[in-house]
Structure prediction request, 243 residues.
Amino acid sequence: MLAEERFREIQKYVESHGTVTVQELTDLLNTSESTVRRDLTELHKRGTLIKVHGGATTVGTSVRTRDEELSVRRDRNTEEKHKIAAYAAELIEADDFVYLDAGSSVDLLIDELNEESAVFVTNAIGHAQKLLKKGYEVLLKGVTEAIVGAEALESLNRYNFTKGFFGTNGVHPQRGLTTPDSEEALVKKKAMERCAQCFVLADSSKIGQVTSITFSDMKESEILTTELKDSSYKKYKNIVEVK
Prediction:
């Protein structure tokens, strides 16, 4: 296959999938990784895609490889996050056994809690402290200020949650729910597996974004957001626009 033919195939694949890995393109084009990397470099120079570590993404998609401090994220899109948090808090019912993931939106959910009989588990130290101060029962207490690693994964295996509330750095149809941290991704994935219902709190800036590590398919949770800026996401029944 000639170079320009490969370029067309790569561009078409990236545009239809949003992001792509070097391995996917190697399989698609039946060529070597070194050839694919050279092609991505050339297309990046032309400005038709963005070359990132391990692959590429469309020009309109941002791929972040590092997370910001919780204190920074907490102060961003606060009005949206408060709306989402208030809506999410109303989903917690009497005697629910709830997992609260680390994250700024989930942190705001704690401020809105009013179901006194619910029991909570969290891997975020800050979340646990806030819950205890409000008088809630917390069974597991754990930069994101999150406890991750083998100990957290082993602990989660003991629990069967009625509901789980999760943060995410990106929501994308093909790349799913993503986070920049590989260990935190493992904890999120394991916790979701232990929940009967999963809710993801994602302000509109997260919709269409992709970060390094996928921890869940987009369709496996109910995603709580505000008004969608990209109308193509309105077709997904599991995305709820909170008013």
